[in-house]
């Protein structure tokens, strides 16, 4: 009898797991509650605009490329990548901005122009970041996170001190740079990891290597082109994809999931992989008493931020914007306090603005711009129409001040998305957008496990387990759980009867 698998959720981790299991000989059914694949990387069209709903940064392109290569394909046959130059711009107070070129030599010159000696110090900083990145990718990131023994091997032990796990990112950065503008640039990649730079391990300077050396890329047509590529590969691999299919619960007998109940009927399989929100699976889909982790455990987790997003179409071109724009005019410490220490709506938030129509003519009508605003917020905040309107006016005002032209009166399409939408669309625990905070106490085997401790054929993938949030980690997460299942299948998952 052929082995079978049900994967719940067609986000990138679910797609990755489904494709990987199919390669191992499983008959895979991938169920998705929405009318398209992608999960948080879905897309919608309105008023002639096409908006990517979630991820907008494309870093670490080798992760997806290697995935396709492992399946005998070239990702270049599925989508086209363009490296952005400049990678992005950072806007400081009083209209000052810094553009970060894609060339590292040119970037060193930018740093040197801001702080004497910073160009050469950036090279030394990046040497350390490169070591951390390459070591993490080879020795840490692809571990299933089931036991501390996974880290007890020669490469991990030899690298421990150089990985800077016990030093804070903030302290590490300040050994190289003094100018606050440079520190904001260097600290930017960790802002969505779920803690302040003072609490994030210096190990995560590897993200600066991903940013400044590997580059910022854009899939022509939009981020959803990556989802389309994975969806095509899933279909080519024999995965059955069931859209508009909501999982309503699981029946557990003799410590196995026997049935997956959906709005379209009952499904059965040898193996179940949930790429849905981990907490939702634990406490809503499983029967009472079968959760992998208690409600108390989940309440004690430190979450990465949620966010308030605006999808805006404007009927004009805006000269000063680039594809990626970071508005760092105000003090991040007060914004961080409102996210991590005293959860509340921030008074003067930093924000991010993506304008993909600077690169891609297909995402907006001719002569118009496609704008994606994002404000990081604490998870679990109550959002109301008045709050959403208040912050829309805030980001529009700041953008208008920088650009020197009116934008608000040119808006022809507007939609917002926040905590309550993450809960409604993804059953996201506390409306989180980025999973668990990447603190040392929630890393590797200290994250929620990829396997259920008592339901022996239930496994998990996605941003709340290893390796963590983000597009490349989601792809890796699916691979990790599929590889683990494949290695265990002979002795544990022979029959669904």
UniProtKB/TrEMBL annotation:
Q: Which Gene3D superfamilies match?
A: FAD/NAD(P)-binding domain
InterPro entries, per the entry? Amino_oxidase (IPR002937), Carotenoid/retinoid_OxRdtase (IPR014105), FAD/NAD-bd_sf (IPR036188)
The answer to whether the entry has keyword Oxidoreductase is yes
What gene is behind this protein?
Answer: crtI
Annotated organism of origin: Chitinophaga pinensis
Q: What is this protein called?
A: Phytoene desaturase
Q: Which family does it belong to?
A: Belongs to the carotenoid/retinoid oxidoreductase family.
Give one GO term, molecular function aspect.
oxidoreductase activity
Q: Read off the SUPFAM superfamilies from this record.
A: FAD/NAD(P)-binding domain
Key words of the record: Carotenoid biosynthesis, Oxidoreductase
Pfam families found in the cross-reference section: Amino_oxidase (PF01593)
